[in-house]
């Protein structure tokens, strides 16, 4: 049996990944040491042995003194030293590994791992300057659109299709193999049927949705200014969290009177949690439970590894004012400002459910496995919060899960018919 060909990987990319992984490993080791020290001190405290706790605190983290304190201090010191040394060595090595060769197509496997990591820890990666943090970029035919690398006029047209992925995903995951094995996607089908030019967005899904929305609005403004032909219209196709980012971008554009907003004609949402997702709410309950006893309180930090992007999904926060100044790990009611669908735009939504048709209870409770049916359809128990999609611009697809929305032929047919 022949050996499958290996994907070509640049030495520079390997060094960058190693540097990012080393930073995470250092921070993880420090975090585990702090949690262990916290549990240790909680146990001693319940036994009345409080003399071993330092009066100085690092945030809410008590530090031990005496021999115990020396051990924990040594672990922190050595870990920090090793981490900084590794980062400095890899940082110095990276420029030496620059290659003059053309970069090969990115490995889908690496892109998927980095995207998942950004979804879970993306805000932390960005805040610490970790090279694994994904900057927002626009992509055409698999290549990043740079100001000096705009495609030729004969390769594009003025009908832009902006495509956004969801949480822990990337732009490559829109593409799937057709029945005959050839790669296909919803974007490719729309380009073939209606002449759209697809431009994909890749972004750090661990950042606040409003932060990504503001960045997307800026990127779209630059794209319209630099596009080689006059932009006639913009259509947005989104999956999951991407829909919240797109709505946030519209709000930012309206507030700033961005010219690209007037070109927006249509938006299609696939499985977008307009009113949040219950799994994040369950994660918030974990925070509450772990913080309820002195023994488990240090472990509550584990539940707080969730990124800002994930906690925004609790209720579907799309505006900066919805989260600014609030403790995102504290359980609190839904107080977000209602943001209607953008005016003057044809908005469509597709909701999936793993249930069979006419199974009303299962539809409402299960949805597509991640997003409840009513949330994806924009419906809310409070009528004032409902997003009003016209009946002929909403659809429910049965026996389909959240991820299958990206590859379903039924969904693709809906898109082609809606945007005809």
From TrEMBL:
Residues 157-332 form the GPI inositol-deacylase PGAP1-like alpha/beta domain. GO terms for molecular function: hydrolase activity. SUPFAM superfamilies: alpha/beta-Hydrolases. It holds the Pfam family PGAP1. InterPro entries: AB_hydrolase_fold, PGAP1-ab_dom-like. Gene3D superfamilies: alpha/beta hydrolase. The keyword Nucleotidyltransferase does not apply. Keywords: Hydrolase. This is Alpha/beta hydrolase. It comes from Rhodoferax mekongensis.
């Amino acid at each position: 049996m022949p050996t499958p060909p290996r994907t070509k990987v640049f030495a520079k990319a390997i060094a960058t990944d190693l540097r990012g992984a080393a930073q995470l490993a250092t921070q993880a080791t420090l975090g585990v040491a702090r949690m262990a020290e916290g549990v240790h001190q909680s146990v001693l405290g319940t036994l009345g042995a409080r003399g071993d706790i330092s009066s100085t605190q690092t945030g809410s983290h008590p530090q031990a003194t005496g021999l115990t304190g020396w051990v924990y201090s040594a672990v922190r010191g050595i870990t920090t030293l090793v981490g900084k040394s590794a980062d400095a060595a890899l940082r110095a090595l990276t420029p030496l590994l620059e290659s003059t060769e053309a970069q090969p197509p990115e490995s889908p496997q690496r892109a998927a791992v980095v995207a998942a990591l950004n979804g879970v820890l993306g805000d932390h990666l960005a805040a610490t300057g970790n090279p694994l943090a994904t900057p927002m970029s626009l992509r055409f035919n698999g290549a990043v659109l740079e100001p000096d690398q705009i495609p030729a006029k004969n390769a594009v047209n003025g009908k832009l299709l902006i495509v956004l992925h969801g949480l822990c995903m990337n732009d490559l995951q829109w593409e799937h193999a057709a029945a005959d094995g050839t790669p296909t996607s919803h974007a490719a089908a729309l380009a073939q049927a209606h002449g759209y030019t697809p431009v994909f967005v890749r972004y750090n899904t661990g950042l606040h949705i409003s932060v990504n929305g503001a960045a997307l609005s800026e990127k779209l403004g630059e794209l319209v200014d630099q596009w080689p032909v006059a932009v006639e219209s913009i259509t947005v196709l989104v999956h999951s969290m991407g829909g919240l980012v797109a709505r946030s971008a519209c709000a930012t554009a309206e507030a700033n009177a961005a010219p690209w907003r007037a070109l927006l004609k249509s938006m299609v949402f696939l499985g977008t949690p307009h009113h949040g997702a219950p799994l994040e709410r369950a994660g918030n309950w974990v925070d509450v439970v772990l913080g309820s006893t002195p023994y488990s309180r240090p472990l509550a930090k584990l539940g707080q590894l969730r990124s800002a992007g994930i906690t925004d999904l609790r209720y579907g926060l799309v505006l900066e004012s919805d989260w600014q100044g609030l403790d995102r790990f504290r359980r609190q009611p839904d107080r977000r400002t209602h943001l209607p669908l953008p005016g003057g735009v044809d908005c469509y939504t597709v909701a999936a459910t793993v249930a069979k048709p006419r199974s009303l209870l299962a539809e409402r409770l299960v949805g597509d496995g991640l997003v409840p049916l009513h949330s994806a359809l924009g419906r809310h128990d409070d009528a004032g919060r409902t997003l009003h999609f016209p009946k002929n611009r909403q659809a429910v697809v049965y026996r389909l899960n959240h991820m299958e929305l990206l590859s379903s032929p039924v969904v693709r047919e809906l898109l082609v018919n809606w945007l005809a």
